[in-house]
Amino acid sequence: MAVGTRSRFEKGVWSSIRWPLTRTVIILALDTTTRGGSLAVTRDTQVLALVAGDAARSHSERLPAEIDAALTQAGLAPDGIDLLAVATGPGAFTGLRIGLAAMQGLAMTLGRPVIGISALDALADEAADGVALVAPWMDAQRGEVFATLLDPGGRTLEPPLAAPPSVVLASWHAHLAGRTAVFIGDAAGREAALIAEKGAGQWIARTPPPLAPALARIAAVRAARGEGGRPHQLTPIYVRRPDVEIERDRRGQS
User: Which domain holds residue 8?
Assistant: First the structure.
């Protein structure tokens, strides 16, 4: 890290920000937990720009240009951003690392606070209606889903896990039996038939919109509580160990 960059972060813009953030803030939010992902620029609840990523190309190929595109849509220069928000997982290891590194770099360069948010929390925010159970389901590859279960008030009933859909439903039976539930996420859409069959008409599957605006909404609430942090405090949420570690252990045991 260049000394000048570190100096600006530690002594410049960051030190002039008063926490908690109670004024109107401009937020740049990034989601790289799915192949497509998304970027949004918001002011309070207003979405100034939204860029849905091209799933046919990797995040590393298109991310710098997509950040520029979002800022251009919003009519802002980078230093017009007050707060950064990024999905910290779960998701593909490579996508998570690219997203986190991009926002850490911006935070250091601009001297801005950054807030990490679980993609499962963002999905729950999109689905919450105060009546039904909410079950965020993300594609975890290998025929598995990243999943968690929340009650209508947002309290976690089942912590995040990675498992086959049928195993997840069986393990949640005590909570789901006889209850209405909203399953949301890319894996919920993929498993819509299973959800409809097992739910006997009480469960619905919903494909979510791009998650970046939800990340920004959550970040605004947390910033008002003073939860913004420095970039080195971002921690990825894997739920399941990275494939490279699993393969390394497998080879060591063979």
Answer: 3-119+210-253
